[in-house]
Amino acid sequence: xxxxxxxxxxxxxxxxxxxxxIELPYIMALLALPGxxxxxxxxxxxxxxxxxxxxxxxxxxxxxxxxTALVQEKVSSRWCHxxxxxxxxxxxxxxxxxxxxxxxxxxxxxxxxxxxxxxPPEVIFWKGDTDFLDVxxxxxxxxxxxxxxxxxxxxxxxxxxxxxxGISVVSGLALGIDAAAHKGALSVDGAPPVAVVGCGIDIxxxxxxxxxxxxxxxxGVILSETPLGIHPERWRFxxxxxxxxxxxxxxxxxxxxxxxxxxxxxxxxxxxxxxxFAVPGPIRSPASQGTNRLLAEGCMPMCDINDLLVALGIPIxxxxxxxxxxxxxxxxxxxxxxxxxxLGWQPAGLDQLTSRTGLSLSNVAYHIEELQAxxxxxxxxLWYERKANKTSSS
Length: 394
What we know:
The protein is an alpha/beta fold. The chain contains 17 helices and eleven strands.
């Protein structure tokens, strides 16, 4: 009896795999149509298999397609026209050649972390390995693209320490905080990183992050619900943020503008009852307006990595990360030390430093240049910031 049940289960699994293989080319073709986002695809697949939906489009059944997909007939007419130029099997072959994995919701290969989400992607693409997501704890680290040096270092150091502790860092491969988080996670031989992007996995955005994309794909995984060849569009990023939250056990917002996109990730995390942390920042810093507002509204502050470990239920050690342990102690010229003390931990211009220290503008300019050469201060435009990875001592 048990053998018979096993044979039946195996036959059912084989049938499911066969159906998955049959459906995938048509799903790829549907997603290649302009304006065919996840929501519209879901509407179509609520009523028909992907093969039947594709058949309706290629047959020119404009009225039925428009009604089923909830689009204007002008859109469905364009779909019918373009479908004549597509070969579903060739589209699927492109994914296979680029080693991009594909799974539709319900397939056995669909990532387990997304299966039970409140808004799972209808189809998910990925490059790399997803197996570790079943065993590793995860922390999403997100924030503004226009981060301060303070925010960059906090993201980098936190991601580094988490990866070293065996916790995978999830982020969005954008500039600023996202890039810092991925670089920090990759700086140690630790847990694999996770990236979720708002475009096709073959479209590197921004282009300056190409090397980072390749490293994340090689050592971890890059996921997207957007098919190959699709460039980033503004509406795709809030959609991307919900997947970041869905893959996380804890979410950390390092820096965010008052209406920053990272706040969407915080909202998505709250909808999933996930712990959300924010990094306190200077009240004068635009990059901290969003995070400070989250804290004012009751979000938990992250003071060091131990706060995240407690939320994950992981035993903590006595230290709060490696930042203090790695600090370089040195005796500085009194005027340099005065400049660092006046700079504090938020950006300042030369005029402000001159006023705070009482030094001449020429002295301030001279010493601040030397502090940059010694990697104690970084310049961003007309503003200077103190670096936390090397602190001075008088």
